[in-house]
Every structure is written in structure tokens, then in C-alpha cells.
Amino acid sequence: QVQLVESGGGLVQAGGSLRLSCAASRNIFSINTMGWYRQAPGKQRELVATIAITSSTHYADSVKGRFTISRDNAKNTVYLQMNNLKPEDTAVYYCNAEIWNSGTYYYDTYWGQGTQVTVSS
Asked: What pLDDT digit, counting tens, does each position of 75-97 carry?
């Protein structure tokens, strides 16, 4: 199991930057995949970016070139650097962890409580 706590959200003007942090309650070195998702009002939760145990990354097309996901295993923390923010990036951002369960042969999914990001035009 793991508990995830996000921080770093806030209000920023279009074109500005924010860095989100996701602190995990355990060593993240062995967590298969960690990522960031977001949910805007009235919309479904969508993937923003993921980083695998190999440090390979994946981004939604809408954030490529503007957002960067990274992980610091020594601090048990995953970051999302968001640059050139747009009003359409406004959403609650959630941290996610996928951990292999050798008992069920499935990945267990964990979520943080979310942090609000609001981008004004």
C-alpha cells in the first residue's frame, strides 16, 4: 500500500508555471508506474503524464512540450513541472500509483486527494 499527498496547486495566469509534488508514504523505487491525472468540472478524469520504474515517460498530446514529469526516488516524490499554462489546464490534479500485486496478478491503483490548479486568462 501507499498514501499519496499532492501539493503545489494554486492560481496562476495564462503563460505562467507551477510545479506539483506528490509525496509517497513509502519507497517509490519499486513502484511500477506513477503519474498525474486531472479532472475538470463536468469532465472525466484524464491522463496527463506517467513515469515508469524505468523512468520512461508518457504525456497526453495536450501537454507535450509544456509539462515534464520526474521522480526523485531519494525523496519518494514525483513532480509535475507545468509551463506555459493555459486556461484549459484548469482542473483538479491527482497523483496516481500502480503497484503490482503478486497475490492477485493485477496492479493495485492508488490515488491522492487532489490539488486544484486554476489558470486565469
From this structure: 999 999 999 999 999 999 999 99
